[in-house]
Please model this.
Amino acid sequence: MNTRAASLLTTRGLTVGYPRGRGKPPLFALNDIDLDIEVGETVGIVGESGSGKSTLGNAILGVVRPTAGRIAFEGEDITHAGAARRRALTQHIQAVFQDPFGSLNPMRTIGKTLEEPLLAHRKLARRERANEVGEALLRVGLTAADADRYPGSFSGGQRQRIAIARALLLHPKLIICDEAVSALDLSVQAQILNLLRSLQQELKLALLFISHDMAVVRHVSDRVVVLYAGKLMESGSSAEICDDPQHPYTQRLLAARPVPDPVEQRNRHLAGTPAVTAPVPEVGCPFRPQCPLATDVCAVEPPVIRSDSRTVNCHAFPAHRVSGGESE
Ligand SMILES: Nc1ncnc2c1ncn2[C@@H]1O[C@H](COP(=O)(O)OP(=O)(O)OP(=O)(O)O)[C@@H](O)[C@H]1O
Ligand SMILES: [Mg+2]
Model:
């Protein structure tokens, strides 16, 4: 096991099975995931719908219980942390989701909503709380006066800024962004991504950036982890994964991304990308029914081919394809 001392958050063998009812085996939404997030680093999690991205975020947040494996934060095993410890951990680990409107009470001013985490975690006088709220709003490009307005009077992009301000209030070390820009128009998406990037650098924040959109993940991430059917297919630096994908699944994910050139887009379409949904075998590589390179050996567990920064879980890519790689 390769636990680096400096990691802010690590998961080892993290597995989550959801019960499927009497007599049926659980649905393994996450299977044996090793993840490291360093202080101030942005790790992107990408994969199609149902690949286990949110389950990973929710397991780290303590919302779902792991079936196996462990999660450590700053070296402390928090896999089975009790309610009180979990509550304390919310100071350090925050989240921003796709739909901020759902979590903003329409009857309360933004100021009142943003005060809530401060009331729960810090003993501050009213004026100090107002100052902190004003500062957080300024940090995300809003004004201190916006604290007196109600959620309904803000645009979608502004509401996402408010959600980010709320996540920042307790000065967390890690923010889990689960499809945080997916519901926004492209131009607003870009603004929010730039905001997250600059906050991350300014505040030395670590981000776990979950998205089904490779272009979005690439824009903000230092490293990228590709999931399929709950398994880690490939991980590496953002440039390695996006410019030189080695796993056939990552290659397909990148090819499926729409491109601005209509001729290239049509050619891709004609070339026929295989259907995204297919039965997932429980043993071996889950991608093998759709994989153009699959052989009999893929029906057993895929290998882990690993260099310092890169992991490729695929038999088709032997160790020598990964610079400085070693095979396990
Ligand atoms: N609470 C739950 N109970 C049972 N099954 C669940 C639960 N949450 C998720 N699942 C299943 O687990 C698998 C992974 O779901 P998850 O939400 O983690 O995927 P995702 O990658 O976030 O997908 P999306 O891109 O659609 O958000 C899916 O098959 C999903 O149906
Ligand atoms: Mg999800």
Observations:
- Residues 269-276, 322-328 have pLDDT under 50 and may be disordered.
- The longest strand covers residues 7-18.
- Residues 186-203 form the longest helix (18 residues).
